[in-house]
Amino acid sequence: MTGKTVTILLVEDDIVDRMAVRRAFKTLKILNPVIEVGDGVEALERLRGENGQEKVPSPCLVLLDLNMPRMDGIEFLSVLRSDPALHRMIVFVMTTSQAEEDMLEAYDHNVAGYLVKQRIGQDFLASISMLEAFWRVVEFPH
């Protein structure tokens, strides 16, 4: 990578889960900027810089919940993957859904990984640390 800072777009409607991610970043001393949005509609506005929203800087990695109001994670992925400017975006799903069909549908939309919140519970810090290692070593599309 070019040494640019990776911005994290956290697409999560649950305040407690948002706080857990912030706490994990603080504990692990991860200083990457984190932009928080509550659903897929708001995430797309931020990624595109629409409706008065400041555009998310590149490179960007998306941490995506599936169960959200207005536009859920799968709907967001469908729109994202059909957008020529955003279709290569790196997305990790972080959700409570253990449903096989949700996981398969997420992978059908080319997510980089699927993390189930309950399973990572005590290993949450390890999961966030793994994500940090990922974004530090991979090349991001332009």
Automatic annotation (TrEMBL):
What SUPFAM superfamilies does the entry give? CheY-like
Q: Please list the residue ranges annotated as the Response regulatory domain.
A: 7-132
User: Does Nucleotide-binding appear among the keywords?
Assistant: no
User: Which keywords does this chain's UniProt record carry?
Assistant: Phosphoprotein
Q: Which residues carry this modification: 4-aspartylphosphate?
A: D65
Q: Which InterPro entries match?
A: CheY-like_superfamily, Sig_transdc_resp-reg_receiver, TCS_response_regulator
* Family matches, as Pfam families: Response_reg
For this protein, the record's SMART domains field holds: REC (SM00448)
Q: What's the protein called, per UniProt?
A: Two-component system response regulator
